[in-house]
Design goal:
Elements: H1 4-12, H2 17-27, H3 38-45, H4 49-61, E1 65-72, E2 79-81, H5 82-90, E3 110-116, H6 118-123, H7 134-138, H8 150-161, H9 173-181, H10 191-199, E4 203-206, E5 212-215, H11 217-231
Antiparallel strand pairs: 1-2, 1-3, 4-5
Helix pairs in contact: 1-2, 3-4, 8-9, 8-11
């Protein structure tokens, strides 16, 4: 097996040997921190989901995987932070999906998903490859960037134009909201968007007095791409011409 932690788990839990081997093989091919769902793995591996969950939990105890609580949009299957969702419910604020804008019901179920830890990512066979979406390939779908809502795209570009590119140049949510949405923007309207961008590791933040948000390296790259797309003129198409 690739991870020595997997070998230790298989030795202690021989009934999980086959699933441990299969999970280990696929984790070794991952080069991103995209969320991993046990249900997806169980379909690909043709294994019982409860066994995959058991293996994931055991790998989490050995710091190969990190477990996170998320809520899932029923419309577009986008995952968002359960902590941000609970905070919105506690404050009686609507919690919108950053992907499609749907408001989450107050009793939305909380899911447990996993990511490869930073130290595990550095050890994978795929770590030397370009940071493409390896998860999509492993699960049999075409790799692509995760879609962002129009509002999330505006926020990323606004942060880039505000030069919020590291913790020393962080900007408040109020400044970002005005830049992205206009002078009359309500910063509270960005709560769900900022939470989702942080979950996707496109931004980071510091709370408390003097706090604020800034773009991560991945966020800078995404914002630059979005801004370049906005500046690229679209080719003229004659109204009477069809391709």
């Amino acid at each position: 097996m690739f991870f020595h932690e997997s070998e230790a788990i298989a030795a202690k839990h021989p009934d999980l040997l086959r699933v441990v081997e299969q999970v280990d093989q696929r984790l070794a091919e991952i080069s991103s921190s995209a969320p991993l769902r046990p249900g997806d793995f169980s379909c690909v591996l043709d294994a019982e989901e409860n066994q995959v969950i058991s293996v994931f939990e055991l790998l989490a105890t050995k710091d190969v995987l990190l477990a996170e609580q998320m809520v899932e949009c029923e419309r577009c299957q986008n995952l968002m932070s359960a902590n941000a969702f609970r905070e919105a419910v506690r404050e009686e604020d609507p919690f919108e999906c950053a992907g499609c804008g749907r408001v989450f019901p107050k009793r939305s179920p909380v899911l447990r998903v996993y990511r490869l830890s930073a130290q595990a990512l550095r050890r994978t066979k795929a770590s030397a490859r370009p940071p493409a979406a390896q998860i999509s390939k492993l699960l049999g779908v075409q790799a692509s960037e995760e879609p962002l809502s129009d509002r999330a795209q505006l926020v990323l570009v606004a942060m880039l134009e505000l030069d919020a590119v590291d913790s020393d140049r962080r900007r408040s949510t109020e400044e970002i909201a005005i830049k992205a949405l206009g002078n009359d923007a309500d910063p509270n309207a960005l709560k769900a968007v900022m939470a989702e961008l942080k979950t996707r590791r496109l931004i980071d933040s510091k709370t408390g007095r003097g706090g604020g948000c800034w773009l991560t390296d991945a966020g800078i790259a995404r914002a630059q791409k979005l801004r370049n797309e906005q500046k690229t003129p679209q080719p003229f198409r004659h109204p009477s011409r069809t391709d």
